[in-house]
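Dear V.,

Thank you for sending over the compound details. I've combined the ligand you provided, adenosine-5'-triphosphate, with the protein sequence from our construct and run the structure prediction for the complex. I'm sharing the raw inputs here so there's no ambiguity about protonation or stereochemistry in the SMILES, which I know was a concern on your side last time.
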Amino acid sequence: MSDVLELTSVSVVRGSKTLLDKVDWQVNDGERWVVLGPNGAGKTTLLQIAAARLHPSSGTAGILDETLGRVDVFELRPRIGFSSAALASHIPEHENVLNVVVTAAYGVTGRWQEGYERDDERRAFALLNDWGMGPLLNRTFASLSEGERKRVQIARALMTDPELLLLDEPGAGLDLGGREELVHRLAELAGDEDAPVMVLVTHHLEEVPPGFTHAMLLRDGGVVAAGPIEEVLTAEHLSTTFGVDLDVTENAGRYTATARR
Ligand SMILES: Nc1ncnc2c1ncn2[C@@H]1O[C@H](COP(=O)(O)OP(=O)(O)OP(=O)(O)O)[C@@H](O)[C@H]1O
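Below is the predicted structure of the protein with adenosine-5'-triphosphate bound, written out as structure tokens.
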């Protein structure tokens, strides 16, 4: 079994709809993956499996040397940092920024009567500083801009010092400046050899941070291509994935796609 993720023939079926169709995927230590595909391709479903929040209908999902269905997911989940819009929607409106991050230590949203150590708060504060959010730690999450919220969510995902970091569309809703700031910070994280293995889901090639090593392309629940990033993010594979004839350029690790006319 691989160190981090080993999916073998994983399918997810709901009624007559196949969300994932016999997906094989291996993610090893040190790798940084981007998962791209059009709306409805199955990206979020795939990430839910990797986050131990969804079981496959068939096939096997190995996560951090455990196998879904044979492991207590409540022990596995703290080893996985996860940032997604679904999770963010559970954060109470008046929660302050520090508490959004510190509550990850208990895997809850909304600080209540859990007993946090001084070290938990120190770590949350340090992570918020790393992500440029230190000055805003007493603000409510609801009052932040979309870009600020995204950075707080990533700080939260890193709170438990995870072995695997999953980011579902962290660039969604950001303006150009916010996106570029995020891409820059994720590129820095990707270059940090102490950082966890990362999987980032996006629709947009422009959001792929330099330093990411591997890519998977999904369409209709199936894998179009997966492997080293330079072999996967080609005009041919991306055109098949998005169903549009594309020209793809790469410059210093940044990718752009435009429709061919
Ligand atoms: N419970 C369900 N029953 C039937 N279909 C479902 C169910 N849950 C999700 N789907 C469908 O499965 C497909 C894959 O959904 P998923 O959210 O994984 O796609 P995605 O690639 O993340 O899409 P997007 O980019 O739009 O967020 C979609 O067509 C969605 O409508």
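A first observation: The mean pLDDT is 92.

Warm regards,
I. M.
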